[in-house]
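Minutes, project check-in

Agenda point 3 was the complex the collaborators sent over. CS summarized: two entities, 229 residues total, and the question is how they sit relative to each other. Sequences were read into the notes so everyone works from the same version.
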Amino acid sequence: MRHYEIVFIVHPDQSEQVPAMVDKYKKTIAESGGSIHREEDWGRRMLAHPIEKIHKAHYILLNVECDKAPLDEIVSSFKFNDAVLRYLIVKRDHAITHQSFLGKEREDELRREKEDALPSQAKKLENSKDSVVKNSTESNQEPEKEKPSDSNDAHEQVSEVLSTPESEE
Amino acid sequence: MSKDATIDYKNLDVLRKHTTENGKIIPSRVSGTTNFEQRRISTEIKRARFLSLLPYTDRH
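CS then shared the predicted structure for the full assembly.
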């Protein structure tokens, strides 16, 4: 049994097949008595240079411990699968389980996307707030009077308005 | 380069410090990298290039 690090790049159009492919490879390794120590999905990344006129591709990383036979099987399936653009297999001395730099990058990206999704909701609220404020200035002049006062008051107003728009719309 | 930074084809930030704007590997005679590290760096950069994580050149 040896430790191998496998990275393969899949055509972005075949991106949906990736989980099935990974399951298949994991199965062949598990059936031969090997084990998977690390599995990472880096998602669709921009390529640094085009491969087969493709500029974006799906990256998968697998750290496995297995014999030569199952590895050969996986390699041949890479060769016969047109969706796999490239693969790299590196021998390692020991099992690597900690998160890789690119895996971390990917996770940070996903987290950022999540965080971005939340502020976008806040932006929506802001937009609705503007419309609400306009309506209120049209109806009565109280907010205009309060504007020149402390900014704290303005903040309070904003938070009040922020909490209301759902009911107003 | 710092000792704790692991040289790996996946650690692109480290490898980018050892390439020029054109994507060329910076020679150790310029960067002052030790021979031991330079050999590792050059193979890891080449692995990253093969996987299209780093460019071979800026003319792609």
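Noted in discussion: Chain B touches chain A through 16 residues (CB under 8 Å).
Follow-up: revisit at the next meeting once the mutant set is ready.
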